[in-house]
Amino acid sequence: MKPIIPLILVAAYSSVAIHAYRISGKVTDGYTNVGLPYSTIKAISKTDSVLAVAQSGAEGEFCIESDMKPDSVAVECAGYIGSILSVDSLASLKEVVIRLEPYSSVELEGITVSASTVTTKGNVQTFIITDQMRRNTINAMDLINKLPGFIVDPISESVSAGSATDIKIIVDGQEVSQSYYRSINPARIKSMEFIRNSSGRYSQYPAILNIVLKKGYEGIDINLNGRYFQFLSGVPTDNETLSANLASSYRRWNYFISGEFTRGTSTSNTGSDLDIFGKTTVTRPISPVDDPDKDGNRRKWLGNAGVSVRLTPRQTLTAQFLYDHADNHTRESSQSIISGESGITDIDSRYETNNYVAGISYRNSVSKRFSLSADVTYNWYDIRQWQDIRKGGDYGMTSVDGDKDYMNGYAEAYFKLNKSLSLNVSYEYTHRNYNTVNNHGSAVAYMENRHRPVVDFRFSHGSFSGNVGVSYLDILARNDETSSHQQTFLPRVNLHWEPMRNLALSVEYYSSTFYPNLDRLSAQRWLVSDRVWQSGNPDLEASTMNYLETRLKLWRNFTLTYMFRHSSNDVATSFALSDTAEPSIVGSYINTRFIHQYAGLLFSKELSGEVDIDVNTNCQWYSRKTDGTVNHGRTFYFDVSANWNIFKSDYILSANLFLRDDRMPLPQGVEKTHWETCFLSCSKMFLNNRLKVNVGVNLPLHLLPHVDRTSIITPDFRYERSEDFWKGTSWKALVNIQYVFSKGRTPRKSGSMTFESEKD
């Protein structure tokens, strides 16, 4: 008997080893809770490989076993919208209940897995991209526009979601050019992660969207894009963009290269009124709509290239380089009345910039419980500005040369302490060196060193998840005359509670730091209007904004948000009398106390699988305090976007209405701005989904005032500036044409068999 016992133990061990991971539960109808028999359940790895397949029983019960830990579980059932669940989001691997929503009778034909599955853990919301979401999409921006609660501006292509506006977009945790991430083939995208108040590499951004690419994808993708934007009447204003992008993946190697050229023109109709008490008055009537006083043209070239190599199955090394060149030229001719005498001022301004960025990153998943990452980035930036000023028979010229020397190093370690708790530890070092000099020999130098260690705990237990962390920010800054030393502890807390399917509550507190750029730190002066100058402030400090935000999500469609944010050193523009012999004023930047409150409603709904609608409306209140003076302001905001996949054809009809009415407080007054967009567009796929044509038009509704105004009043002077909001007309047209060539595949392994899903 003794020899038999080891054999029994070996057999038992082998049985356990073969099926180390077991997930069991029930598939039910999302409305009736009745079990769904004959449902297909698949265990999926991180590389999208199928590890195991099972079928539910007569009551919807199932049990799926795998020798490797799956990353997600996909469930399909005829007549129902498929679902994909992240394994890490499951509170337990036993008694898992998966609820599927039925299709209507019109939607049954030819439907496979379609709905995006959304999971939330702490401050990270994950959207798993399905084949149904990829339908009628040609790039990543099309996919983002399909995410519930996300709105992509049809003109600027900026992304917003509730209180998060102009969201920072990255790819696999790394910054890339806009041209590249906008053109990514949807077939390459596995999921998207929406991260609020990140504690790591991108902590300076309130919100980021991380595009996660499939790791096993092999192929080549070429994306060609042409975009043309034109005012249809009035003063000509246009914008053209041409871009080309290539991405290739083969075995251990991944490459990408992108290039973009942008050209545009602009016009403005401005007026101003300056009264320096007891010294002079300057009146500049607003220019007629058909005769703008200021026009400009701009050009920009951008190139981005990168290569990534998988050193081992767990180690990846990535290097990339970016270069962009910008050339802006503006001409302004205005007639002003200065102390009763009429005169003409001509201002010819131009600036050129060159921006070089090189970076290298390393990723190592040492084990299931431990991973390392590190990044090093170097940035060189130079700028040259010229300005010619003619007033009657007088002539003046100013030129400024500036450069930025920037280096950033970042390292992070991840520890999975147990099933419910993980730890992130990171350290970031930044060096900045700014220099400017003008043609009169005036020079300004600025140097800054930053240190930022971060400790962040993440946890999950049942319906609760969240993260708690703290960072220490140390900034040593020095210019030609002064030095400063800022030391700040920045705590962050995020709590997420989702007790049931139709209810979720998030509460978070965090801080973000904003660092002044070269323009805001340089003391060089620039003429912006008659007797009005603009300058930077070498003594300007980095500003820290503290956020307290709570979100209540109901029935998966409604999100109520309240946010309170406060800064004791927010950056704002302040005006003062110039020290020149000619009576004038100069605007510069100062640190002020700032309070902002936000209350908003976000509604997102997909109707019958053909129409989806997103609505974001909010009210905001502001106060700004400087030298004992408090100014108040408010914002009314309304943004609605609707997309109709016309009878599930290749035609998509889109409509976007955006209204924003701002009254922003300044240290010495108020700035009133307005923005209105009513954009209609239609897109069509051609050539077997390789060519997409989008044509749109902006309609002039004239629901808001036409003129933006800035009003400044001090004991020494009064200054008002106005600008025609419509820039001559609001009838605009947009034509966007994209062509893609794509040939790729994702190998999938199940047992001893290999499946290849190929998309051309």
**Global morphology:** globular
- The CATH homologous superfamily of the largest domain is named TonB-dependent receptor, beta-barrel domain
Number-wise, the strands total 43
Helical amount: under 10%
Using the coordinates above, name the CATH class of the largest domain. Answer: Mainly Beta
Structural class: mainly beta
Number of helices: 5
Biggest β-sheet description = 29 strands, mixed
Strand content: over 45%
- Unreliable runs, pLDDT <50, ≥5 residues? 1-19, 104-116, 748-760
Q: End-to-end span in angstroms?
A: 62 Å
> How many structural domains are formed by the residues?
2
Q: Give me the CATH fold name of the largest domain.
A: Maltoporin, Chain A
Secondary structure topology:
Blueprint (H helix, E strand, L loop, with lengths): L3 H15 L2 E9 L10 E5 L5 E6 L5 E6 L5 E5 L6 E4 L9 E5 L16 E5 L2 E5 L2 H4 L5 H7 L4 E2 L6 E2 L7 E4 L6 H5 L6 E8 L10 E7 L4 E14 L6 E13 L2 E16 L1 E7 L3 E5 L9 E19 L2 E24 L2 E24 L5 E22 L2 E23 L4 E18 L4 E19 L2 E16 L3 E18 L2 E12 L3 H4 L4 E4 L2 E3 L8 E12 L3 E20 L7 E23 L3 E16 L2 E17 L5 E16 L2 E18 L4 E8 L8 E7 L3 E8 L7 E19 L2 E7 L1
Parallel strand pairs: 1-7, 12-14, 31-34
Antiparallel strand pairs: 1-4, 2-3, 2-5, 5-6, 8-9, 9-13, 10-11, 13-14, 15-16, 15-42, 16-17, 17-20, 18-19, 18-41, 19-21, 20-21, 21-22, 22-23, 23-24, 24-25, 25-26, 26-27, 27-28, 28-29, 29-32, 30-31, 32-33, 33-34, 34-35, 35-36, 36-37, 37-38, 38-39, 38-40, 39-42, 40-41, 42-43
